[in-house]
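Before relying on records like the one below, remember that each one covers exactly one chain. Contacts with other chains, cofactors or solvent are not represented anywhere in the record.
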Amino acid sequence: MSAGRKRDPIWCRYDELPNKKVKCKECNKSFSSIADRMRADSTVHDRQANVDEEQPVDSTPVQVTQSQMEPFVIKTAQEKADQLDILVGKFFYANNIPFSAAESNTYKEMMANLRPGYRAPNSKSIGNPILEKVFSETTEAASKTLAGKRVTLCMDGWSNINNDPIAAASIQYGDKVYVVDSVDTSGLAHTGENLANLCDQLIEKAQETFGVVITAVVTDKAGNMIRMRKLVSAGRDIVQYGCSAHQLNLLAKDLGPTRVTNSIVEIAKFFRNTHLPKSWLKDKMLKSRQCLVLHGGVVH
């Protein structure tokens, strides 16, 4: 720059850098030392300074109200949450899923993604209040269907996995079966008289719960059950008879040749306990089903 020419005041706002570049003292940006480019940058800073002077920053904390947050929050009304709880409970009960599965992280993650605003029930809720609600709801629906209907009471006994003696009763109407109750009969001698008293209690409960009329009682062909049926039907308009399937099973045992029966059992055990033959048999059965489907057959 010549000694006689006055230096532009704009230079006082920039630091000179090598290679004909400058750096702004306010924003630290670097660019070519062209006067027009420097003036444009300075103008931007001057305008921003004027805005800051005219509109001072408000340091008061911003208060966010609930109504302002609502568009960003997914909420589930209590009524809807109760409906979802019932559906989750029914899923667990219908598929025999252990209630402890509700404590798994996978279950919680799945439910959180399906509906973020819904808190899924835990194992205690599924096993207590929700179970009670579903039971009451199911019983009420069954009562409406069965009220005044003439039905058959079926009763049987067995031991559970803990070897506890259990007696259970159900009622059958058409092709539908409804459970009445299951009773732990530990400490009760399974005589015909004791079983008859238990059956009377189950008949009374079925009538009170579902409003049905018991017209028949079916049990197996055990001696104590036969005695029970005679006592229960005495003086009542109730038909009593033994289970046909159980009777046929006993008949097959009496009439079937022991040698043939034993051979069948051995063959069944062989395929059940030997891996390769079991796999071959399974493959043959699958191909047989496919052939029947192709030819319009029905496989049960």
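Strands lie at 14-17, 21-24, 30-32, 150-159, 165-173, 176-184, 213-219, 239-242.
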